[in-house]
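Email to the structure team, subject: NADPH-dependent FMN reductase model.

Hi all, the expression group asked for a predicted structure before they design truncation constructs. Nothing fancy, just the C-alpha cells so they can compare against earlier work. One-line instruction: predict NADPH-dependent FMN reductase, return C-alpha cells.
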Amino acid sequence: MGSGMAETHVVAISGSLRDDSYTRKSLRIALDAAEDAGASTELLDLREWELPVFDADTENAGDAETFRERIQAADSVLLGTPVYHGSFSAPLKNALDYCGFDEFEHTTIGLLAVAGGRFPITALEQLRTVGRSLDAWVIPLQVAIPRASNAYEDGELVDEEHRELIETLGRETVQYAHIEPDPASFESGENVGADD
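Reply from the structure team: attached below.
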C-alpha cells in the first residue's frame, strides 16, 4: 500500500454487457469526478473479462484471479448495474461471487443503478446488502437513474440533476475511501461462503 500519501484508487464494475450501455456511460462520469478529486481510476467492463458462471470448485476459472487482484487493489469500488426484474444484473452477481472478504473488507463501495422503467431502488438495496455482508462500507448516497432513455440523448447525459448526483458519488468514493469502518456487520456473520 505504501505511505499514507498514496493515491486513492477507485475501480468501477459495469454490470451491463450492452454495447451502448447507460450504466457504463454513467460510471465513466463518476470515475471522471473521482479523477478530478485526485484519484486514479479503472473501469472493469465485464464484456472484457472471462468469468464463467461461478462454481466454488473452480474459483480461479478464466480471469478470476486477475479480476480479484484488481478489486483488492482498490480503495473504493463503484458497482453499476442495469435493473432486471427489480434486481441487479447476472453478470455483476457472478463477478461478485468470485470475490470475498479479501477483496472487499474495509473497502468503500458506491452504488449506481440504471433502469428503463421507474423503480431502480430494489436493486440498489440488494447491492447494499451484498456490500454489508462483505464488511465493506457502503456510501449512504446511492444513484438511481429511472427511465434512462430519457436521461440520455445521443449517448450524452442531458439530465443535469442526475449528472450532479453521479459526480457527487464519484467524489465521495474518494472522500470516504479511507473511512474507519464499523465493526463487522451482522450480515457478514451469515456470509459463510465468502471466505471459503
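The chain has a mean pLDDT of 92. The beta strands are 9-14, 40-45, 76-82, 108-114, 137-145, 152-153, 156-157. Ping us if the truncation boundaries need rechecking.
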